[in-house]
Amino acid sequence: MMDAVTLRIADMQQPGHAETGVQGGPVKRFVFTHFQPAVLVAMILFWTFAPDSIAKPAVAVGIGIVFKLTLLGMERISERHAHWRLTWKELASDLFYVALSYTLVKYVGKHFGDDAIIDGIKHAFHIKTAWAGQLPILVQAIAILLIFDFGQYWMHRGMHNWTPLWLTHAPHHHITQLNALKGSVGNPIELFLIGLSLGGFFDFLPRAALLASGIGMAIGAYTHANIRFNTPRWWSFLFNTVEHHSLHHSPDYDSSRTNYANTFIFIDRIFGTCVDSQSSKVGLDDCRRLPIKDQMLYPFRPLADLVKKWRISRTAEALPAE
Amino acid sequence: MRIIDWIWRVRGSIPLATPRSASEIFARLEPIFRERGTTIEYGPDTLSFRKDNPDSQDKLASFEVGRLLVSGGTAPILHFDMSSRPLFWCFVAPLPFLAVALGVPSLKISGYSFAGIFLALYVAGRWIEQRQAHKLFLAALGTVAACPVEAPPVPDASRIA
After folding, report:
1. What confidence score (pLDDT) does residue A213 get?
2. How far apart are CA B79 and CA A252, in angstroms?
3. TM segments (chain B) (predicted)?
């Protein structure tokens, strides 16, 4: 059952509805209607035609930072909800997780993640897939995104259905507001797990991987951004949006078990978990934010409880009977 | 301690227009503390607050503990003194990222970048949080403040001419 704070997208698009679309002049409405598709086209053009001297991972990192800063600025121009507004403390906390993603999670992923394991398997079984790199760049990028998103969908769905995985993912659901940086907020174990992909089995070109990661980064940032877009219907049919993802972050249990895909919401449509709706209230249980220390320790809570119980029972045994 | 505690402590004072009792001043400020996780205690001239995991939109969310004091007789002043763990950790944050930059060659750029980002964030936060707290108290005090926020000073006509 949907929570009272959720509204179907069809309802939101009714004329005169208080929540209807972007407010403001024609230029603003134009920008916030076409921004998402325009960025997609720009990403494709840039990574397809940029010279080799520019098409490098460092440039992708720079684009990612500038893009997220742009979205944070756009949150002030077409704000979705005032109660999601970024504060200094929230920004400092979010940047800590972004920094962890770019350092610790990246390092562990590189040395112990999918690439390292897949390289080992490919080497052991002499698997060669050079043909993948012969495909057009855009086809390669779509393949990378589809392979990643398909794996991510099931990993994410698994996290909502199996306690050991949920313990790593629950901290992310404790966020009580959305903004362009919130995709990075979570326990590092979850960030590591959700980043795993089987794409490494195919020898796609690095340029295609950069294009795929650029598209994935942009859509991932939109889905957490506190921005009111006039999202085109065709876009909402194909891609994940902040509407879909805000519903996924709803405190309502059933609503949170929808819209698992990172980039392509049609994967949810295929598996029957897509709900075209949204929620203004996000969080878990009583919607209290989880401090950084608790986010880090959350997966180990059951273990800590067990140790605590064991200590209590030992203390009880050691006490002389009266 | 006072030499270094400016890192995480925010202090300030607001002159009050006319002599008022501390209880009257605190009655005006009390709505600010009607937030989830916030408890307050009153002393003869003081209001102490404590926040346990405040909500994001709590205007004083950056501060865990604080004390407000009304001093002075004919020219009363409201003093505030609040401690912020986020400010402290933001001040410290550049150090581990510097260590990462110096210790792991592949993370050099990220390490230096985030060390710089947290340094800039601290400087901005130290200014923003002080300013916001001052403005918040000033707005709550209204006409009781010597320079109420609702009534900006009238420009001096002779100087404009």
Report:
1. 93
2. 43
3. 87-104, 110-128
Q: How far is A289 from chain B (nearest CA, A)?
A: 7
Residues of B in contact with A291 (CB under 8 A): 53
Indicate if the alpha-carbon torsion angle A127, A133, A139, A143 is positive or negative.
positive
CA distances in angstroms from A268 to A144, A149, A155, A257, B68, listed in the order given: 18, 11, 13, 11, 53
Q: What is the pLDDT of residues B137-156, one digit of tens each?
A: 999 988 777 776 544 444 44
The count of domains in chain B is: 1
Model pTM?
0.86
Does A251 reside within a domain?
A: yes
Q: What tens digit of pLDDT does each residue of A191-215 get? A: 889 888 888 888 899 999 999 999 9
Q: Which two tokens stand for residue A293?
A: 């220390």
Question: For residue B2, is pLDDT > 90?
Answer: no
Residue B147: helix, strand or coil by DSSP? coil
Residues of the domain holding B46: 5-146
Helix (H, G, I), strand (E, B) or coil at A322: coil
Across the A:B interface, residue pairs with CB atoms under 8 Å apart total 70
Residues 60-119 of chain B with CB under 8 A from chain A are 61-62, 86, 89-90, 93, 97, 100, 104, 106-107, 109-111, 113-114, 117-118
Q: Which two tokens stand for residue B147?
A: 């320079």
Say if B31 falls within a structural domain: yes
pLDDT of residue A122: 87
